[in-house]
Amino acid sequence: MTVSVTVSVQLCGNQNQQTVDQAFIDSGIVKDLGIKLPSDGLNLIEVKYSSASVSCGTELKSLQTAEKPMIKYPTKSNTLYTFMMLDLDEPSPSLPTFRSVIHWLVINVKRDDLQSGFNIYSYLIPVPTPNMGAHRYVFMVFEQPKEFAIGSNAMIAVGSKFNVSEWASQNKVFGPVAGNYFLGKNP
């Protein structure tokens, strides 16, 4: 008897050809956010700005991120998602006293169509504190257990010092199931 097993590994597309999981671990994202990675691995969120694509640690300048990017990620049918973008390093990577700052938060997303969801925080252009080092801007997707009611706890997210793991636990979301990040510099 022959058994066939297919393993799907999500690569970042960066020059190291890391898995998304490994990139999140190596960059300190997992530790700094206190998140747990799914046992079957983190999927890659495709993030495309008009002048650049994001690939687990791509360095971008503020001008390159001035417009909202195109977002795409693997989805399941009949599943709602929460999408978020965070700055982990405000005001500086060495002293991130405002970790994490929400730059974009959308709930009740159908598939990967962010316009189908409800914007809690509209896209905020990443502008890291000048000359303080590169900030990690992290994109993550969580699976929702149900549709969140407008005005629910899912919406009571502060703009800075946002605790992702606490929010995920309170709202019983699964994940993150997908992620990506870039390093933002100014200048």
TrEMBL record:
Domain of life: Eukaryota
InterPro entries given in the database record: PEBP (IPR008914), PEBP-like_sf (IPR036610), PEBP_euk (IPR035810)
SUPFAM superfamilies xrefs: PEBP-like
PANTHER family: PHOSPHATIDYLETHANOLAMINE-BINDING PROTEIN, PHOSPHATIDYLETHANOLAMINE-BINDING PROTEIN 4
Name recorded for this polypeptide: Phosphatidylethanolamine-binding protein
